[in-house]
Amino acid sequence: MTPSVAEHFPALRSGFSYLDNASGAQVPTHCIEAITDFLTRGSCNVGQPYAASVRATEVKARARAATAEFLGCAPEEVILGTSATALTFQLSRAFSRLFRAGDEVVISELEHESNASPWRWLEAQGVEVKVWRARWPEGRLDPADLRPLLTPRTRLLAVTAAANSVGATPDVATAARLARAVGAWTLVDAVHSSPHQLPDVRAWDVDFATFSPYKVFGPHLGCLYVRAGLLPQLPADKLWFVPDDSPQKLEPGTAPHESLAGWLGSLRYLREVLGDGQPGRAGLQRAFERIESLERPLLESTLERLLRHPRVRLYGPPEPQGRVATFAFNVAGHSPRAVAEHLARHEVGVGAGHYYATLAAQALGVMPEGVVRVSLLHYNTPRDVERLLAGLDSLP
Ligand SMILES: Cc1ncc(COP(=O)(O)O)c(C=O)c1O
User: Fold this and answer.
1) Whose CA is nearest to atom 12 of ligand 1?
2) How confident is the model over 180-209, as pLDDT tens digits?
3) Cα→Cα distances 169→160, 201, 331, Å
4) In ligand 1, which atom is closest to the CA atom of 212?
5) Which of 107, 197, 356 to mutate to test the pocket of ligand 1 (most atoms within 8 A of CB)?
6) Pairing relation of β-strands 222-226 and 78-81?
7) CA dist., res. 299 & res. 324, Å (int)
8) What is the model's pLDDT at position 4?
9) Intervals of CATH 3.40.640.10 along the chain
10) Which residues of the chain does CATH 3.90.1150.10 include?
11) Ligand 1 centre and the CA of 83: distance in Å?
12) How far is it, in rounded angstroms, from Cα 282 to Cα 267?
């Protein structure tokens, strides 16, 4: 019998059912050992000629190259940072010096605040922020609703590749094409989609994209894609001697080198355990085919059971198509927090709240308490789902 992928994740050995993966994934041994190895063999900064520093320099360069393979771009287009939110704020600060009063930014109603608040701050200087409303309760973004919002003054479209609230997966390639037709850039938030679907910035044909390795079985880090040629146009806060076309421009300060080492370990897990060991992007593509095949039955059965549960009101796409295995719902007679606390007593970890998807929560009328969120990843099992359902059934 093929050993279960869960065996590679020490935290899963406790038997606890981690169903709050959208807030951060568990990590495989490959990641943990790579971090330990980096710190054990000499925790050093980059750029010096002694062995441990040479190792740190190599780790950073390899992490940039491997992240480029993950995103489907060139290493010079990758910015390594601490979180997607911090990187998006850095971008918005640079854009604030480019955008003029009367310019427009369109954000989708499915955005996490990470891809909304940084643009809202530009309103103070006269930039208009428009919201591309979703169709509720499915949370579907229809390109027909985007078209009328785009004008020659639109500078940026901010859209997610998967909603961390209701799990819907908008067609970002079509949205980016519409934005480009009026001369606007597109920033895709791939934070929630990336543990499920390999990002592909070239196929999406977008200008900027973010994702966070800690959602992809890695350590706490954030990454940003900036299309080649755009970096020199960005009046970012940078150290004066850093060249204008260098990714370092958006990487002030020392990188978390041990986390970069860990991220390389996570990518090795993807390639070697889930994929067929092939190098390059092809190995990652194989891994994500496997992820899809592991997640699909869990997604279908959980969706079906939540939809027909008499006390559950599920939001988001009612079909397996156009969604990831992230389920937002409420249970009649119980607050989301009470449901999460009840499930925690049954060894099931789920979330309760709005998950910073405040526009979606407002549209659904569930503020301030929000919804229960169950988010499954490939390492979850039918037993986790059974436990969840049994926990829901045992609510008073
Ligand atoms: C869709 C989405 N975007 C952005 C973020 C923020 O990512 P980070 O924690 O790296 O800032 C999250 C975090 O949960 C998220 O789910």
Assistant:
1) 191
2) 999 999 999 999 999 999 999 999 999 999
3) 8, 15, 24
4) 10
5) 356
6) antiparallel
7) 7
8) 85
9) 34-266
10) 5-19+289-393
11) 8
12) 12
pLDDT, tens digit (0-9, with 9 covering 90-100), for 131-164: 999 999 999 999 999 999 999 999 999 999 999 9
Q: What are the backbone dihedrals phi and psi of residue 117, each rounded to the nearest 5 degrees, phi first?
A: -55, -40
pLDDT tens digits, 368-388: 999 999 999 999 999 999 999
Question: Which CATH fold topology does 5-19+289-393 show?
Answer: Aspartate Aminotransferase, domain 1 (3.90.1150)
163 C-alpha vs ligand 1 centroid, how far in Å?
Answer: 10
Instruction: Estimate to the nearest angstrom the gap between the alpha carbon of 162 and the chain centroid.
Output: 8
Ligand 1, atom 13: closest residue by C-alpha? 23
Q: For residue 82, which of 224, 186, 231, 200 has the smallest C-alpha distance?
A: 224
- In CATH, the number for domain 34-266 is 3.40.640.10
Closest CA to 174 of 330, 3, 322: 322
For the cut 80, the answer to whether the pLDDT of residue 212 exceeds it is yes
User: Is the pLDDT reported for residue 3 higher than 90?
Assistant: no
